[in-house]
């Protein structure tokens, strides 16, 4: 399960900024949590918008390829997407119950990765860190206090 920002830079013509692309980006930007293509498609349909599920998948993959969204493979193996609030390197805290996501600075993880790599004779380490836990709202519901 890895949330990651795609670093693939395509040398082809940039994707067209179609109405569906703008709509999907806007809808993705309205939430703070990772969502699957099916969830985004359902939101669009509920809002009375017309975009096929295939279009939603195509646009999301394109956004991931250009680094405009982070991706995360859910425990069920489905790809989920999130429009990040920052372009700087960061990591995520993800609630394993509701999917709530919080961006956190990569500083401490950067130092840890450099240290571990150096200790084992590696250079230029790359990493993806996600921390899974239970958010306070879900914990309160579980304990019956929410």
UniProtKB/TrEMBL annotation:
InterPro entries: FUR, Fur_C, WH-like_DNA-bd_sf, WH_DNA-bd_sf. Signal peptide: none annotated. It is found in: Cytoplasm. Fe cation binds at residues 89, 110, 127. Keywords: Cytoplasm, DNA-binding, Iron, Metal-binding, Repressor, Transcription, Transcription regulation, Zinc. CDD domains: Fur_like. One of its GO terms (molecular function) is zinc ion binding. Gene3D superfamilies: 3.30.1490.190, Winged helix-like DNA-binding domain superfamily/Winged helix DNA-binding domain. Residues 1-20 are annotated as: Disordered. Zn(2+) binds at residues 95, 98, 135, 138. The keyword Iron applies. GO terms for cellular component: cytosol. GO terms for biological process: negative regulation of DNA-templated transcription; regulation of secondary metabolite biosynthetic process. Residues 1-17 have a biased composition (Polar residues). Its main location: cytoplasm. Binds 1 zinc ion per subunit. Its cofactor is Zn(2+); Mn(2+); Fe(2+). The keyword Signal does not apply. It comes from the Bacteria. Homodimer. Belongs to the Fur family. PANTHER family: FERRIC UPTAKE REGULATION PROTEIN, ZINC UPTAKE REGULATION PROTEIN. This is Transcriptional repressor. It comes from Propionibacterium australiense.
């Amino acid at each position: 399960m890895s949330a990651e920002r795609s670093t693939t830079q395509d040398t082809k013509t940039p994707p067209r900024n179609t109405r569906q692309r703008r709509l999907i980006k806007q809808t993705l930007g309205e939430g703070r949590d990772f969502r699957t293509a099916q969830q985004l498609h359902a939101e669009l349909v509920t809002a009375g918008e017309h975009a096929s599920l295939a279009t939603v998948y195509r646009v999301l993959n394109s956004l991931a390829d250009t680094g405009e969204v982070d991706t995360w493979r859910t425990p069920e193996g489905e790809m989920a997407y999130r429009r990040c609030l920052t372009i700087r390197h960061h990591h995520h805290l993800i609630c394993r119950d509701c999917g709530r996501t919080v961006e956190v600075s990569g500083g401490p993880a950067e130092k840890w990765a450099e240290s571990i790599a150096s200790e084992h004779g590696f250079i230029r380490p790359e990493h993806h860190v996600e921390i899974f836990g239970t958010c306070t709202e879900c914990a309160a519901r579980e304990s019956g206090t929410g």
